[in-house]
Design brief:
Blueprint lengths: L3 H6 L4 E5 H17 L3 E2 L9 H10 L4 E3 L2 H9 L4 E7 L3 H11 L4 E6 L2 H14 L3 E8 L7 E2 L3 H9 L4 E7 L5 E2 L2 E2 L3 H21 L6 E4 L5 H6 L5 E2 L9 H5 L10 E12 L2 E4 L23 E3 L5 E6 L4 E5 L11 E6 L2 H6 L3 E6 L2 E6 L8
Parallel strand pairs: 1-19, 2-12, 3-4, 4-5, 5-6, 6-7, 6-8, 8-11, 11-12
Antiparallel strand pairs: 1-13, 9-10, 13-14, 13-18, 14-17, 15-18, 16-17, 19-20
């Protein structure tokens, strides 16, 4: 990925993104979704940088998806004009900011999953003299936000009657869940996802609410959900960079992963382990090693040496252990590691290195840490 001169120029610990490979991933997803006559609205949670959102839009994406209004503001400042905030819009501060944002983009779609939340949003919209486009979130088995399917028609009817709101669609996040339980069968999960969302939309329409958009699909199920013909939009995010997790979930290969950590060995006083300069401030801990179903060997995959594992961490220390009892690493050596989950990895960096056409440069992660 990098030559020795480029590696020696890095300020570690850091992340390097292969932009050329990311472009290939963008194009591949766009082509597959378009071939299924479905729209692509990628989630920015993975890259958190306007330049990558613009690449996705230039490749054919209809718009982007964010989780928080603060992220959406960053993307709007970067030139994105069609944004869906796929998270219940509850709370005065974020609602006020969303209304202000709606006035400076071409299209802003907000999310609701309760009548209480919708009423709050309605009151704010009426007070501001605006009409806000909203989508209703459906719980299809992930066990997070979203209204249960059997309650969705009544809630949709109630929301559609509120002033200041225009209910235009439904959306869900389901990922690799089938019949309410985790599955490793992507096709089975996607088929169920498409069917559940289509049937929910039909029930809402039968109740008198003429919704248009049926939005689904994460990276593991996105293409397959689009190919069901039962949804008209998918919102994958991780596909742009891919990671070790996606290889386990049958949604990527190792040679498609566009991101690497680089870290410097700072101590080797014990041959059975070495210490690198990245700890919990650098490497995500949301994927716990050696638990089912995938049994990740460490907090990141040490590239090129299956004997080594990033086994434990403190805030500033990463402990790389060896199955053989001798790491073979030396002080000053720079090692590369593959993230288990790239989305949280990027969010822990103020800036990243971009490698494009052989040239290395730094880029700010403009939407990292956006909580509101």
């Amino acid at each position: 990925m990098l030559d020795e001169k480029q590696i020696s120029s890095l300020e570690t610990p850091c992340i390097v993104i292969d932009v050329d490979l990311a472009r290939k991933n963008i194009q591949a997803m766009q082509e597959r979704v378009a071939a299924a006559h479905c729209r692509l609205r990628p989630h920015i949670k993975t890259h958190k940088m306007p330049l990558f959102s613009l690449m996705q839009i230039e490749a054919g994406a209809d718009g982007i998806t964010c989780a928080k209004v603060s992220e959406a503001e960053v993307m709007a400042d970067g030139g994105c004009r069609d944004i869906f905030i796929a998270y219940p819009m509850v709370g005065r501060a974020r609602t006020e900011r969303a209304i202000a944002l709606s006035r400076r983009v071409d299209r802003l779609i907000l999310a609701v999953d309760s009548l209480e939340g919708a009423k709050m949003l309605s009151d704010a919209a009426v007070a501001a003299g605006v009409t806000l486009e909203v989508r209703l979130e459906i719980d299809t088995g992930a066990g997070r936000t979203g209204i249960q399917i059997d309650r969705a028609p009544d809630l949709a009817v109630a929301i559609s009657a509120l002033p200041g709101l225009r209910l235009t669609g439904i959306y869900t996040f389901k990922s690799l869940v089938y019949e309410g339980k985790p599955t490793e069968d992507n096709a089975l999960a996607a088929a169920e996802e498409g069917r559940m969302m289509h049937d929910t939309a039909e029930a809402i329409r039968a109740a008198g609410v003429p919704i248009e958009d049926i939005s689904a699909g994460s990276t593991p199920t996105g293409i397959l959900a689009a190919e069901t013909g039962l949804v008209n939009e998918v919102r994958p995010g991780t596909y742009i960079f891919k990671d070790f997790m996606l290889t386990k979930e049958h949604a990527g290969t190792m040679d498609e992963i566009a991101v690497r950590f680089y870290a410097t060995v700072v101590s080797t006083n014990h041959k059975e382990y070495a210490v690198i300069d990245g700890g919990t401030k650098c490497f995500p801990t949301d994927v716990v090693p050696m638990v089912p179903p995938f049994y990740y060997p460490g907090y990141a995959l040490v590239e090129g040496n299956p004997d080594l594992h990033l086994s434990r961490m403190n805030e500033e220390h990463g402990i790389v252990t060896s199955d053989s009892g001798n790491t073979g690493l030396h002080v000053g050596q720079v090692i590369s590691l593959i993230p288990n989950h790239v989305c949280t990895a990027i969010n822990m960096q103020n800036s990243v290195y971009l490698l494009e056409n052989g040239v290395l440069r730094k880029e700010k992660v403009a939407a990292r840490g956006m909580l509101v």
